[in-house]
Protein backbone atom coordinates (compact mmCIF):
# COMPACT_ATOMS: atom_id res chain seq x y z
CA UNK A 1 0.00 0.00 0.00
CA UNK A 2 1.59 3.28 -1.09
CA UNK A 3 0.65 6.63 0.40
CA UNK A 4 1.76 9.90 -1.12
CA UNK A 5 3.23 11.21 2.13
CA UNK A 6 5.05 9.33 4.84
CA UNK A 7 3.16 9.48 8.13
CA UNK A 8 4.36 8.66 11.60
CA UNK A 9 1.27 7.64 13.64
CA UNK A 10 0.86 9.37 16.98
CA UNK A 11 -1.07 7.68 19.77
CA UNK A 12 -4.00 9.82 20.91
CA UNK A 13 -6.43 8.87 23.68
CA UNK A 14 -9.68 7.29 22.50
CA UNK A 15 -11.49 9.28 25.13
CA UNK A 16 -11.15 12.47 23.10
CA UNK A 17 -14.18 13.68 21.17
CA UNK A 18 -13.20 14.77 17.70
CA UNK A 19 -13.70 18.06 15.94
CA UNK A 20 -16.19 18.77 13.20
CA UNK A 21 -13.34 18.64 10.71
CA UNK A 22 -13.27 14.87 11.08
CA UNK A 23 -15.60 12.47 9.28
CA UNK A 24 -19.30 12.82 10.14
CA UNK A 25 -21.07 9.80 11.58
CA UNK A 26 -23.16 8.25 8.77
CA UNK A 27 -26.93 7.95 8.98
CA UNK A 28 -28.13 4.56 10.13
CA UNK A 29 -31.10 2.60 8.83
CA UNK A 30 -32.27 -0.97 8.32
CA UNK A 31 -29.74 -1.27 5.49
CA UNK A 32 -26.87 0.27 7.45
CA UNK A 33 -27.48 -0.47 11.12
CA UNK A 34 -25.31 -0.83 14.21
CA UNK A 35 -24.92 -4.20 15.94
CA UNK A 36 -24.26 -4.33 19.65
CA UNK A 37 -25.36 -5.30 23.15
CA UNK A 38 -27.03 -3.51 26.05
CA UNK A 39 -24.78 -2.09 28.74
CA UNK A 40 -25.46 -4.07 31.87
CA UNK A 41 -26.45 -7.47 33.16
CA UNK A 42 -30.13 -6.63 33.71
CA UNK A 43 -32.98 -7.24 31.25
CA UNK A 44 -34.27 -4.16 29.40
CA UNK A 45 -37.97 -3.68 28.50
CA UNK A 46 -38.86 -2.97 24.87
CA UNK A 47 -41.57 -0.40 24.15
CA UNK A 48 -44.27 0.05 21.55
CA UNK A 49 -43.31 3.62 20.64
CA UNK A 50 -40.71 6.28 21.30
CA UNK A 51 -42.57 7.63 24.34
CA UNK A 52 -41.29 4.54 26.16
CA UNK A 53 -44.49 4.11 28.18
CA UNK A 54 -46.29 1.08 26.72
CA UNK A 55 -44.30 -2.14 26.79
CA UNK A 56 -44.49 -4.22 23.62
CA UNK A 57 -42.75 -4.63 20.28
CA UNK A 58 -43.66 -2.29 17.44
CA UNK A 59 -43.25 -4.85 14.63
CA UNK A 60 -45.02 -7.12 15.23
CA UNK A 61 -46.84 -6.15 18.43
CA UNK A 62 -46.05 -8.53 21.28
CA UNK A 63 -46.41 -7.39 24.88
CA UNK A 64 -45.36 -10.68 26.45
CA UNK A 65 -42.19 -10.99 24.36
CA UNK A 66 -40.75 -7.50 24.79
CA UNK A 67 -37.68 -7.92 26.96
CA UNK A 68 -34.05 -7.66 25.88
CA UNK A 69 -31.63 -10.02 27.60
CA UNK A 70 -27.95 -9.14 28.08
CA UNK A 71 -27.06 -12.04 25.76
CA UNK A 72 -29.23 -10.73 22.90
CA UNK A 73 -27.46 -8.85 20.12
CA UNK A 74 -29.48 -5.87 18.86
CA UNK A 75 -29.62 -4.07 15.53
CA UNK A 76 -29.81 -0.29 16.04
CA UNK A 77 -31.83 1.30 13.23
CA UNK A 78 -32.40 4.82 14.56
CA UNK A 79 -31.18 6.96 17.45
CA UNK A 80 -32.69 10.06 19.01
CA UNK A 81 -32.02 12.11 22.16
CA UNK A 82 -33.33 9.55 24.64
CA UNK A 83 -34.33 6.45 22.66
CA UNK A 84 -33.17 3.99 20.04
CA UNK A 85 -35.29 2.02 17.56
CA UNK A 86 -33.90 -1.50 17.42
CA UNK A 87 -34.41 -4.95 15.98
CA UNK A 88 -33.56 -8.24 17.66
CA UNK A 89 -34.24 -11.95 17.40
CA UNK A 90 -36.52 -13.51 19.98
CA UNK A 91 -35.99 -17.16 20.83
CA UNK A 92 -39.73 -17.59 21.22
CA UNK A 93 -41.16 -15.61 18.34
CA UNK A 94 -38.52 -14.64 15.78
CA UNK A 95 -37.63 -11.14 14.65
CA UNK A 96 -38.90 -8.22 16.71
CA UNK A 97 -38.61 -4.43 16.52
CA UNK A 98 -39.24 -1.78 19.15
CA UNK A 99 -37.94 1.13 21.20
CA UNK A 100 -35.57 1.10 24.17
CA UNK A 101 -34.03 3.90 26.26
CA UNK A 102 -30.77 5.10 24.73
CA UNK A 103 -29.28 4.80 28.21
CA UNK A 104 -29.53 1.02 27.87
CA UNK A 105 -26.90 1.19 25.10
CA UNK A 106 -24.65 4.12 26.05
CA UNK A 107 -24.35 6.94 28.57
CA UNK A 108 -23.60 9.39 25.74
CA UNK A 109 -25.52 10.44 22.65
CA UNK A 110 -23.97 9.03 19.49
CA UNK A 111 -20.88 10.96 18.42
CA UNK A 112 -21.11 12.76 15.10
CA UNK A 113 -17.38 12.76 14.49
CA UNK A 114 -14.78 10.07 13.99
CA UNK A 115 -11.10 9.54 13.36
CA UNK A 116 -9.24 6.77 11.56
CA UNK A 117 -7.43 4.18 13.61
CA UNK A 118 -3.71 3.93 12.84
CA UNK A 119 -3.50 0.28 13.91
CA UNK A 120 -5.51 -2.91 14.25
CA UNK A 121 -7.24 -3.63 17.58
CA UNK A 122 -7.97 -7.31 18.15
CA UNK A 123 -9.28 -7.04 21.71
CA UNK A 124 -12.88 -5.88 21.26
CA UNK A 125 -15.57 -6.30 23.93
CA UNK A 126 -19.40 -6.47 24.07
CA UNK A 127 -19.21 -4.58 27.36
CA UNK A 128 -16.20 -3.95 29.61
CA UNK A 129 -14.47 -7.25 30.31
CA UNK A 130 -16.67 -9.42 28.05
CA UNK A 131 -15.10 -10.30 24.70
CA UNK A 132 -16.97 -9.71 21.43
CA UNK A 133 -16.25 -12.82 19.30
CA UNK A 134 -15.07 -12.41 15.69
CA UNK A 135 -14.53 -8.68 16.12
CA UNK A 136 -11.59 -6.41 15.29
CA UNK A 137 -10.96 -2.78 14.47
CA UNK A 138 -8.75 -2.55 11.38
CA UNK A 139 -6.10 0.05 10.64
CA UNK A 140 -7.83 2.68 8.53
CA UNK A 141 -11.28 2.17 10.09
CA UNK A 142 -13.16 5.34 11.03
CA UNK A 143 -13.96 5.03 14.74
CA UNK A 144 -16.60 7.04 16.62
CA UNK A 145 -16.12 7.35 20.38
CA UNK A 146 -18.91 7.45 22.95
CA UNK A 147 -18.59 6.76 26.67
CA UNK A 148 -15.70 5.80 28.96
CA UNK A 149 -15.71 3.28 31.80
CA UNK A 150 -12.46 2.76 33.70
CA UNK A 151 -9.83 1.54 31.24
CA UNK A 152 -12.45 0.93 28.52
CA UNK A 153 -13.84 3.25 25.83
CA UNK A 154 -17.10 2.64 23.99
CA UNK A 155 -16.89 2.98 20.21
CA UNK A 156 -18.83 2.57 16.97
CA UNK A 157 -16.78 1.22 14.07
CA UNK A 158 -17.36 -0.33 10.61
CA UNK A 159 -17.72 -4.12 10.59
CA UNK A 160 -18.12 -5.54 7.09
CA UNK A 161 -21.48 -4.34 5.74
CA UNK A 162 -22.71 -2.71 8.99
CA UNK A 163 -21.34 -1.04 12.14
CA UNK A 164 -20.66 -2.38 15.62
CA UNK A 165 -21.17 -0.81 19.04
CA UNK A 166 -18.41 -2.17 21.23
CA UNK A 167 -15.72 -1.43 23.81
CA UNK A 168 -11.94 -1.36 23.55
CA UNK A 169 -9.19 -0.59 26.04
CA UNK A 170 -8.04 3.01 25.91
CA UNK A 171 -4.40 1.91 25.85
CA UNK A 172 -5.01 0.01 22.59
CA UNK A 173 -6.21 3.11 20.71
CA UNK A 174 -3.96 5.08 18.38
CA UNK A 175 -4.71 7.62 15.65
CA UNK A 176 -2.71 9.29 12.92
CA UNK A 177 -1.79 12.92 13.54
CA UNK A 178 -4.20 15.54 12.18
CA UNK A 179 -4.94 13.39 9.22
CA UNK A 180 -1.75 13.91 7.22
CA UNK A 181 -2.40 10.44 5.89
CA UNK A 182 -6.05 11.17 5.22
CA UNK A 183 -6.15 14.79 4.03
CA UNK A 184 -8.24 15.42 0.96
CA UNK A 185 -6.02 14.99 -2.06
CA UNK A 186 -3.75 12.36 -0.55
CA UNK A 187 -4.06 9.10 -2.42
CA UNK A 188 -3.61 5.40 -1.93
CA UNK A 189 -2.28 3.27 -4.79
CA UNK A 190 -2.70 -0.49 -4.51
CA UNK A 191 -2.05 -2.77 -7.47
CA UNK A 192 -2.03 -6.55 -7.02
CA UNK A 193 -0.21 -8.31 -9.85
CA UNK A 194 -2.44 -11.24 -10.70
CA UNK A 195 -2.10 -13.31 -13.84
CA UNK A 196 -5.40 -13.44 -15.76
CA UNK A 197 -6.95 -16.85 -16.22
CA UNK A 198 -9.34 -17.86 -18.99
CA UNK A 199 -11.59 -20.88 -18.53
CA UNK A 200 -10.72 -22.11 -22.01
CA UNK A 201 -7.01 -22.13 -21.18
CA UNK A 202 -7.58 -24.85 -18.60
CA UNK A 203 -8.33 -27.23 -21.44
CA UNK A 204 -4.79 -26.73 -22.74
CA UNK A 205 -3.09 -27.24 -19.39
CA UNK A 206 -3.78 -30.95 -19.05
CA UNK A 207 -5.11 -32.79 -22.13
CA UNK A 208 -7.47 -35.59 -21.22
CA UNK A 209 -8.35 -34.04 -17.84
CA UNK A 210 -10.46 -31.15 -19.06
CA UNK A 211 -13.00 -29.45 -16.87
CA UNK A 212 -16.67 -29.95 -17.70
CA UNK A 213 -18.85 -27.27 -19.23
CA UNK A 214 -20.61 -25.04 -16.69
CA UNK A 215 -22.92 -22.01 -16.88
CA UNK A 216 -21.59 -18.55 -17.64
CA UNK A 217 -22.07 -17.20 -14.08
CA UNK A 218 -20.54 -20.32 -12.53
CA UNK A 219 -17.56 -20.02 -14.86
CA UNK A 220 -17.06 -16.38 -13.84
CA UNK A 221 -17.20 -17.28 -10.14
CA UNK A 222 -14.80 -20.19 -10.68
CA UNK A 223 -12.28 -18.02 -12.54
CA UNK A 224 -12.44 -15.18 -9.98
CA UNK A 225 -11.99 -17.58 -7.05
CA UNK A 226 -9.21 -19.50 -8.83
CA UNK A 227 -7.30 -16.28 -9.52
CA UNK A 228 -7.75 -15.19 -5.90
CA UNK A 229 -6.57 -18.57 -4.60
CA UNK A 230 -3.62 -18.60 -7.01
CA UNK A 231 -2.50 -15.18 -5.73
CA UNK A 232 -2.97 -16.08 -2.03
CA UNK A 233 -1.07 -19.36 -2.29
CA UNK A 234 1.35 -18.46 -5.12
CA UNK A 235 0.39 -21.57 -7.09
CA UNK A 236 -0.48 -22.29 -10.71
CA UNK A 237 -4.11 -23.17 -11.28
CA UNK A 238 -4.63 -26.57 -12.91
CA UNK A 239 -7.71 -28.74 -13.41
CA UNK A 240 -6.37 -31.08 -10.70
CA UNK A 241 -6.03 -28.23 -8.20
CA UNK A 242 -9.51 -26.93 -9.01
CA UNK A 243 -10.95 -30.37 -8.40
CA UNK A 244 -8.97 -30.99 -5.20
CA UNK A 245 -10.12 -27.68 -3.69
CA UNK A 246 -13.73 -28.26 -4.72
CA UNK A 247 -13.83 -25.13 -6.86
CA UNK A 248 -16.06 -26.80 -9.43
CA UNK A 249 -18.75 -27.17 -6.78
CA UNK A 250 -18.41 -23.73 -5.19
CA UNK A 251 -21.18 -22.21 -7.30
CA UNK A 252 -23.47 -25.14 -6.54
CA UNK A 253 -22.72 -25.06 -2.81
CA UNK A 254 -22.10 -21.32 -2.40
CA UNK A 255 -21.09 -20.20 0.17
CA UNK A 256 -20.47 -23.51 1.98
CA UNK A 257 -18.03 -24.49 -0.77
CA UNK A 258 -15.67 -21.74 0.36
CA UNK A 259 -14.73 -23.49 3.61
CA UNK A 260 -11.79 -25.29 1.97
CA UNK A 261 -10.36 -21.95 0.85
CA UNK A 262 -10.52 -20.06 4.17
CA UNK A 263 -12.07 -16.98 2.54
CA UNK A 264 -14.49 -14.56 4.23
CA UNK A 265 -17.89 -14.31 2.53
CA UNK A 266 -20.60 -11.67 2.95
CA UNK A 267 -24.03 -11.31 1.33
CA UNK A 268 -25.29 -7.80 0.49
CA UNK A 269 -28.19 -7.48 -1.99
CA UNK A 270 -27.88 -3.70 -2.19
CA UNK A 271 -26.30 -1.01 -4.38
CA UNK A 272 -22.59 -0.42 -3.81
CA UNK A 273 -22.06 1.61 -0.61
CA UNK A 274 -19.17 3.62 0.76
CA UNK A 275 -18.76 1.19 3.66
CA UNK A 276 -18.41 -1.69 1.19
CA UNK A 277 -15.78 0.20 -0.83
CA UNK A 278 -13.92 1.02 2.39
CA UNK A 279 -13.88 -2.66 3.38
CA UNK A 280 -12.61 -3.60 -0.10
CA UNK A 281 -9.74 -1.10 0.22
CA UNK A 282 -8.80 -2.59 3.60
CA UNK A 283 -8.74 -6.08 2.05
CA UNK A 284 -6.61 -4.92 -0.89
CA UNK A 285 -4.21 -3.21 1.52
CA UNK A 286 -3.86 -6.56 3.28
CA UNK A 287 -2.78 -8.05 -0.06
CA UNK A 288 -6.11 -9.81 -0.59
CA UNK A 289 -7.90 -9.48 -3.96
CA UNK A 290 -11.69 -9.36 -3.62
CA UNK A 291 -14.31 -11.36 -5.54
CA UNK A 292 -17.47 -9.32 -6.17
CA UNK A 293 -20.83 -10.54 -7.45
CA UNK A 294 -23.58 -8.36 -8.89
CA UNK A 295 -26.85 -8.91 -10.69
CA UNK A 296 -29.69 -7.30 -12.60
CA UNK A 297 -32.87 -9.30 -12.80
CA UNK A 298 -31.89 -12.92 -13.33
CA UNK A 299 -28.43 -12.09 -14.67
CA UNK A 300 -25.64 -12.73 -12.16
CA UNK A 301 -21.99 -11.95 -12.85
CA UNK A 302 -18.65 -12.00 -11.00
CA UNK A 303 -15.37 -10.10 -11.16
CA UNK A 304 -12.11 -9.89 -9.21
CA UNK A 305 -11.07 -6.54 -7.72
CA UNK A 306 -7.30 -6.24 -8.06
CA UNK A 307 -6.43 -2.60 -7.46
CA UNK A 308 -7.36 0.84 -6.17
CA UNK A 309 -5.94 4.30 -6.84
CA UNK A 310 -7.82 7.10 -5.14
CA UNK A 311 -8.47 9.00 -1.94
CA UNK A 312 -7.37 7.50 1.36
CA UNK A 313 -10.54 8.57 3.15
CA UNK A 314 -13.96 10.15 2.84
CA UNK A 315 -16.28 9.20 0.01
CA UNK A 316 -14.80 6.60 -2.34
CA UNK A 317 -15.54 6.24 -6.05
CA UNK A 318 -16.12 2.92 -7.82
CA UNK A 319 -14.25 4.30 -10.84
CA UNK A 320 -11.02 4.27 -8.81
CA UNK A 321 -11.12 0.47 -8.43
CA UNK A 322 -9.62 -1.88 -11.04
CA UNK A 323 -11.13 -5.28 -11.73
CA UNK A 324 -10.61 -8.31 -13.93
CA UNK A 325 -13.88 -9.42 -15.52
CA UNK A 326 -13.88 -13.12 -16.52
CA UNK A 327 -16.94 -12.52 -18.69
CA UNK A 328 -15.01 -10.12 -20.94
CA UNK A 329 -11.56 -11.54 -20.15
CA UNK A 330 -10.12 -8.09 -19.58
CA UNK A 331 -9.42 -5.48 -16.93
CA UNK A 332 -11.84 -2.58 -16.41
CA UNK A 333 -12.96 -0.01 -13.89
CA UNK A 334 -15.34 -1.27 -11.22
CA UNK A 335 -17.77 1.54 -12.11
CA UNK A 336 -17.92 0.40 -15.74
CA UNK A 337 -18.63 -3.18 -14.73
CA UNK A 338 -21.24 -2.23 -12.11
CA UNK A 339 -23.08 -0.04 -14.63
CA UNK A 340 -24.66 -3.17 -16.08
CA UNK A 341 -26.12 -4.31 -12.75
CA UNK A 342 -28.58 -3.02 -10.17
CA UNK A 343 -27.13 -4.45 -6.95
CA UNK A 344 -24.12 -6.08 -5.34
CA UNK A 345 -24.99 -9.57 -4.14
CA UNK A 346 -21.90 -11.34 -2.83
CA UNK A 347 -18.36 -10.43 -1.86
CA UNK A 348 -15.54 -12.79 -0.97
CA UNK A 349 -12.73 -11.03 0.93
Describe this structure in words.
- The protein has helices spanning 202-205, 216-233, 239-244, 250-253, 274-285, 334-338, and strands spanning 2-3, 23-24, 34-36, 44-45, 67-68, 74-79, 83-90, 94-101, 113-116, 125-127, 130-131, 142-149, 152-159, 162-169, 187-191, 265-270, 290-296, 299-311, 321-325, 330-333, 343-348.
- The chain folds into three domains: 8-25 and 111-172, Roll (SH3 type barrels); 34-104, no CATH class; 190-348, Cathepsin B, Chain A, CATH 3.90.70.
- The radius of gyration is 22 Å and the shape is globular.
- 14% of the residues lie in helices and 32% in strands.
- It starts with a strand and ends with a strand.
- By secondary structure, the chain is an alpha+beta fold.
Amino acid sequence: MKISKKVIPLAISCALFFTAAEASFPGISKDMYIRGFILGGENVPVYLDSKLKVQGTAKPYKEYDSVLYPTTEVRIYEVRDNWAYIGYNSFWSGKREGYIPLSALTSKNFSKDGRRSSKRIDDVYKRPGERYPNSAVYAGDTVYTLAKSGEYVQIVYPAAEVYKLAWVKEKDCAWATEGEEHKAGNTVNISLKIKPLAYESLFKMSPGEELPDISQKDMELLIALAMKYSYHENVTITPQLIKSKGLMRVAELFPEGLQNLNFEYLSYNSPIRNSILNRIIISLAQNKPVVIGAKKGNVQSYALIVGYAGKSGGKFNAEDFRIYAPRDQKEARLSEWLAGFSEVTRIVY
